[in-house]
From TrEMBL:
Protein name as it appears in the record: Peptidyl-prolyl cis-trans isomerase
CDD domains noted in UniProt: cyclophilin
PANTHER family assigned to the protein according to its UniProt record, in alphabetical order: PEPTIDYL-PROLYL CIS-TRANS ISOMERASE B-RELATED, PEPTIDYL-PROLYL CIS-TRANS ISOMERASE-RELATED
Primary enzyme class: isomerase
Known catalytic reactions: [protein]-peptidylproline (omega=180) = [protein]-peptidylproline (omega=0)
Similarity comment: Belongs to the cyclophilin-type PPIase family.
Organism: Nocardioides zhouii
Compositionally biased spans, kind Low complexity: 33-50
Keywords assigned by UniProt, alphabetized: Isomerase, Rotamase, Signal
Purpose of the protein: PPIases accelerate the folding of proteins. It catalyzes the cis-trans isomerization of proline imidic peptide bonds in oligopeptides.
Signal peptide limits: 1-18
EC number: 5.2.1.8
Superkingdom of origin organism: Bacteria
Length: 242
């Protein structure tokens, strides 16, 4: 989901731009101004067996009370809980290659893969970018482009409390604990956020180059949480898994 973004020790959400946002406005955002030391949720809906292969996690994706931005089915409850999954975000600026960590964040990866395979992210905008000291993210995942849209369900955080957000990090935006949805953010500058956003993968070097090109066009600076709308439209044309 998409929620809010700001500066050092920021609250990064993809629902207030979906990362660290206001639950009251239904947005997900990552915010650089939030200096609260919010502790990660200790309860998660994922319970995975440990092992080298064939592990599964049981995940819960309850309805969040909002109409989905696009009609999609919730992910299956049984999620692979081992290894990595590759994916490519194709944008009008170029490709962004991803490696998704299904071992550490099985429910998050399961949701992202499910939405991608259903075409939820195809032909959707990335409406927010922030490029400043301690805060460099591109937020995507809301087909409405408003920062308040999602897939109609939510799921729990998958946090250790040791999360950091260096360049190359892929993380979920949210509007508070356990409010993950469809919105996510791509970190292209080392960013200072509290460990409140689930980190579920990494971005390849070519992908960082693509995001640098997006950042170079600038933004309107209108987002109160940090950054703003890119000066040129940024569109996810499709997300390919595998």
């Amino acid at each position: 989901m998409l929620k809010r973004l700001a500066a050092v020790a920021a609250c990064l959400s993809v629902l207030t731009l979906a990362g660290c946002g206001n639950e009251s406005d239904g947005k997900a955002d990552v915010t650089a101004e939030d200096t609260s030391s919010a502790s990660p949720s200790e309860s998660t809906s994922a319970s995975a067996d440990e092992g080298a292969g064939g592990e599964t996690a049981t995940c819960e994706y309850p309805a969040d009370g909002q109409e989905p931005a696009r009609e999609v089915e919730p992910p299956a409850a049984d999620a692979p809980a081992g290894g990595t999954v590759t994916a490519t975000i194709t944008t009008n600026f170029g490709d962004i290659g991803l490696s998704l960590d299904a071992a550490a964040t099985p429910c998050t990866v399961n949701s992202f893969v499910s939405l991608a395979e259903q075409g939820f992210y195809d032909d959707t905008p990335c409406p927010r970018i922030g490029d400043q000291d301690g805060f460099g993210i591109l937020q995507c995942g809301d087909p409405t482009g408003t920062g308040s849209g999602g897939a109609g369900y939510s799921f729990a955080d998958e946090l250790t409390g040791d999360e950091t957000y260096p360049a190359g990090t892929l993380a979920m935006a949210n509007a508070g604990p356990d409010t993950n949805g469809s919105q996510f953010f791509l970190v292209f500058r080392d960013s200072n956020f509290p460990p409140s956003y689930t980190v579920f993968g990494t971005i390849d070097e070519a992908g960082l180059t693509t995001i640098d090109a997006i950042a170079a066009v600038g933004n309107d600076g209108a987002n109160p949480a940090g950054g703003g709308t890119p000066n040129e439209d940024v569109t996810i044309e499709k997300v390919t898994v595998g």
